[in-house]
Write a structure and sequence with these properties.
Layout: E1 8-12, H1 14-22, H2 27-38, E2 42-47, H3 64-72, E3 80-82, E4 84-85, E5 97-98, H4 102-115, H5 123-127, H6 133-154, E6 159-161, H7 165-168, H8 170-181, E7 184-185, H9 187-194
Parallel strand pairs: 1-2, 1-6, 2-3, 4-5, 6-7
Helix pairs in contact: 1-2, 2-9, 4-6, 4-8
Amino acid sequence: MSSEVAQVNVTLDMNCIIDLEQQGPAAPFIRELVDLHKAGAIKLQVVATQGAERKQDGSFPSTIEDFRNRLAGVGLGDLELVPSIGFYDFNFFLGFSVLAGAKHVDLERKIHHILFPNIQGDFKACCGDPPDPDKEIRWRNAKCDVVTMWGHIWSRGDVFVTSDRNFHKETKRARLIALGASSILTPQEAVATLRDR
């Protein structure tokens, strides 16, 4: 029997990347997680669909390479990109998008309902035709969070790391864990939990 401990798959959400870019309050804890990853104690991963998030200059990445470059800019260039459910004209990155079947869509809808019960999941129903720009930004941010959690669950991630308070609301966190999220921690909690593994 092997005495090896299974490696923990830790998913960083977009807030972690932004904290590193802006030297936010969670940045030291995220850097400590990166050090644990480099030491082989944990395996950090990022959901590729986060590449659809708006950049600091207000533009949106057009290719997965744009996102890889953004990650490399904060020292995360070697992290595995895990796929997520893909939506054309939103986050469909060839090779990193799962084409949706019924079970994929069902999971995505459940996550959306938990995280954003007051935002329509369907783009046109939420934003109108032509879309209202303010509603579109809100919808896009919500959908990025939803498909990021989807990718974490689908890739069997062990720990989802985020400073986004929406994920930490007790009624939401418990339901996401029941769907398969395993554990949802802040960067500081993740360091405290994973440091001594």
